[in-house]
Amino acid sequence: MKPIQCKNYSITFNSWDVLIDKLEEGYSKIIVIVDENTEVHCLPLVEPYLGNDYHVIVIPAGENYKNLNTASFIWQEMAQVGADRHSLCINLGGGVIGDMGGWTAASYMRGMDFIQIPTTLLSMVDASVGGKLAIDFRGFKNMVGLIKDPLAVIIHSDFLNTLPKRLIKSGMAEVLKHGLIADRYYWDHVKEYSNKTSISWDQWIYESVLIKKKVTEIDPMERGLRKILNFGHTIGHAIESYSLDHDSDPLTHGEAIAIGMICESYLSMKASMISEQDLSEITQGVLSVFGKENRSLPRMDDIKIMLSRDKKNKGGSVMYSLLEKIGKATYNQEVEEDHVRDSLDYYKNL
Fold first, then answer.
1. Can you list the pairs that 275-284 forms with residues at least 24 positions away whose Cβ atoms lie under 8 Å?
2. How far is Cα 298 from Cα 249, in angstroms, rounded to an integer?
């Protein structure tokens, strides 16, 4: 597939040519960051293209490890092998690896180059595009971070074959979101995920990357339009953080965002932006992929503090990105707290 050219980097598909070219540029050290899963399932697919002189840093898998302790471990490992600002960091993994690896590389010795090689559907269509890098802090999602473009993004859909079905479905939350906020035609296709006998993953990934690329290039620093990408994420992140703290088997990011999209679609309806018919279509489309989550979900009082710390907030008010219609979103929307409570009840009563 044709590469997608962003302002400062390219996104390539199913080719290792860019990686090979970059490794020939004379970096002082090559660092490869993986987790326990991608070390086993993904690194062997990349090793033939890495040459003989590289250092692998392995971190535990899971959102619970996207924190300062893990960042400190990565920096220590980088220092131990003699990495400097003329080194190259290759982040091979899902969203946690992309965030952790990118954030530590961008801050180590004031920044080294890094390449993102996403291995999950979620990271292919979302986390690896747009330059956002962050870690969680004191129970709050993505509390400490920055925006820094990678040297390149290399997407290989073959990595999807290494994933359990639950993680494929997790990535579908962002695919569905892209259709809802930007492309009605795309939504009409991807909401049929569960009914399809075969899926053109390359095409779906490409379309999602194009949508996010267009939005982030218009507003790279999230001053305005880029906030529409947070649709479903205000309530979704709060639910995800709650689940990480309270559940032995926490919700995946996509599972939490799926709930968030249904709740925030309800808020869009209460704001007279979308119709009840639209809300029903969105609800059924999301549920057809994820099903109804029957575990005990948080109440409004449980997530109020998390909502109050959301990065989009302004002047002490919680700001939401909502749908004007299916295929178009807006941002900086204030919502009555009672409506948020009602949205949670709406989901629980489905």
1. 278/323, 278/325, 278/326, 281/326, 282/180, 282/323, 282/326, 283/350
2. 15
pTM for the predicted model, two decimal places: 0.94
- Nearest-angstrom CA–CA distance, 63 and 11: 25
Q: Structural domains in the chain? A: 4-162 (3.40.50.1970), 165-348 (1.20.1090.10)
**Helices (DSSP H) in the chain: which residue ranges?**
17-23, 36-41, 43-46, 68-80, 95-107, 121-122, 165-182, 184-190, 201-218, 233-246, 253-270, 276-290, 300-308, 337-348
DSSP-derived secondary structure letter, 126: I
Amino acid letter, residue 293: E
Could you give phi then psi for residue 286, rounded to 5 degrees?
-70, -45
Q: Mean pLDDT of successive 10-residue segments in the chain (350 residues)?
A: 94 97 97 98 97 96 95 98 98 97 97 98 91 92 94 97 95 98 98 90 97 96 96 95 92 97 99 98 98 90 83 80 98 95 96
